[in-house]
TrEMBL record:
FAD-binding PCMH-type domain ranges (all copies): 72-266
InterPro entries per record: FAD-bd_PCMH, FAD-bd_PCMH-like_sf, FAD-bd_PCMH_sub1, FAD-bd_PCMH_sub2, Oxid_FAD_bind_N
Taxonomy, superkingdom: Eukaryota
Protein name per the record: Berberine bridge enzyme-like 8
Taxonomic lineage from the root: Eukaryota, Viridiplantae, Streptophyta, Embryophyta, Tracheophyta
Signal peptide (residue range): 1-27
Record keywords, A-Z: Signal
Organism: Gossypium hirsutum (Upland cotton)
């Protein structure tokens, strides 16, 4: 038996925004009154203001895009780190009374900053659910209650290596503990099916705060197989990638194929010192000999052999495909790991779109010309096959996904 894991180091997105618009008088008065309201709720030791020495470290603990860590970035008046549902209710109540916006942050898989910045100049408060991260597994019934602050090493994610076979985490959520804008605690029955559908990604994010999810567990074998093969333009990467588009949807559901396109320094025949590299990566729910035979029958152009394959546990494949093959599994429990890696890099913007028709070779050549421009260094372009039985992606079928990061 296994858990749904994400291909990144962070769990499925659990960001919900509760916004209240009320007349605002003096900011200083509101600030003081809000803190007094929280102190009367016996959670003062869980409240961090900008004067607190731990404020910055807590704020930046799960910020993975350095463009949101600038002196001009909007900062919350207060960060609350609840330990109990009553602390969340108290923060909602006090924010509503004093007209403050709320931003709710859980696992931290948020590249656009919506869980910790405000698009307006209105004062806001962050509820950081990092302390609410317990996982209670019911092996007999094959379910688990997972608090929203849990991260990869504690449970997993919802948009990951298993979704072609089992769908998204949203497809496997069977109940939730939810607090609405009035502070009421609701479950699936009491909230109704419309709201239950909406909090799983079907609508906007202003419904309330999810404290925990009841997840249906899925079965994963003891051994999976992973490979990663890179081809440059000089090794017919364009032709192989073009062909991949026409056969990748035929791969079995137990296979997660993906492609990453980047650039690397090299010396080519025409004197260029930069070339495009296309990396074909796959996680397969099975043994290496099965995967090699499958690829030889479906995609022989890649030239996969048993030497290219590595058998491992499923959780180890998370590290391998997350480009952390030499790290200890304990790294998955480190909520701050990606921060130390990304803060040192330039800020980035991620854009997703869906390719409904195969890209012709001339189209790829146009992409290559852009990637080879000096100002595009560090850019990546990703494809992931989206042939899935997910009810939430049923209209997307087997179309591809492109991400351009610059």
């Amino acid at each position: 038996m296994g858990f749904l894991h994400s291909s990144s180091l962070f769990p499925f997105l659990l960001v919900f925004i509760v916004s209240f618009s009320w007349p605002i008088t003096s900011s200083a008065d509101i600030y003081g009154d809000f803190l007094h309201c929280l102190s009367s709720s016996s959670i003062s030791n869980l409240v961090y203001t900008q004067m607190n020495s731990s404020y910055s470290s807590i704020l930046e603990s799960t910020i993975h895009n350095s463009r949101f860590i600038t002196p001009t970035s909007p900062k919350p008046w207060v960060i609350v780190t609840p330990l109990h549902v009553s602390h969340v209710q108290a923060t909602i109540r006090c924010s509503k009374i004093h007209g403050l916006q709320l931003r709710t942050r859980s696992g931290g898989h948020d590249f656009e900053g919506v869980s910790y910045i405000s698009e307006s100049e209105s004062p806001f408060v962050i509820i950081d659910l990092a302390n609410l991260r317990s996982v209670q597994v019911d092996v007999e019934n094959e379910v688990a209650w997972v608090q929203s602050g849990a991260i990869m090493g504690e449970f997993g994610g919802g948009y990951g290596l298993l979704f072609r076979k089992y769908g998204l985490a949203a497809d496997n959520v069977i109940d939730a503990e939810f607090i609405d804008a009035n502070g009421r605690i609701l479950n699936r029955k009491s909230m109704g099916e419309d709201l239950f559908w909406a909090i799983r990604g079907g609508g906007g994010g202003s419904f309330g705060i999810v404290l925990s999810w009841k997840i249906k567990l899925v079965h994963v074998g003891e051994t999976v197989t992973v490979f990663s093969i890179s081809k440059t333009l000089e090794q017919n990467a364009t032709q192989i990638l073009h062909r991949w588009q026409y056969i990748s949807y035929k791969f079995p559901d137990g296979m997660y194929p993906s492609i990453t396109i980047s650039t690397t320094n090299t010396t080519t025949q025409d004197g260029r010192n930069l070339t495009v590299v296309v990396t074909f990566s796959t996680m397969f729910l099975g043994r290496a000999n099965e995967l090699v035979l499958l690829m030889q029958n479906i995609f022989s152009e890649l030239g996969l052999t048993s030497k290219d394959c590595n058998e491992m546990s499923f959780v180890e494949s998370i590290l391998a495909l997350g480009l952390l093959p030499n790290q200890n599994l304990e790294i998955l429990l480190d909520r701050n790991y990606r921060v130390s890696f990304l803060v040192a890099t330039p800020s980035f913007k991620t854009k997703s779109d869906y390719v409904k028709k195969p890209i012709p070779e001339i189209g790829f050549q146009g992409i290559w010309s852009q990637l080879l421009e000096p100002e595009a260094r560090g850019a990546t372009f990703n494809f992931v096959v989206k042939w899935t039985n997910s009810r939430n992606l049923q209209s997307l079928s087997h179309i591809g996904r492109g991400i351009y990061t610059k």
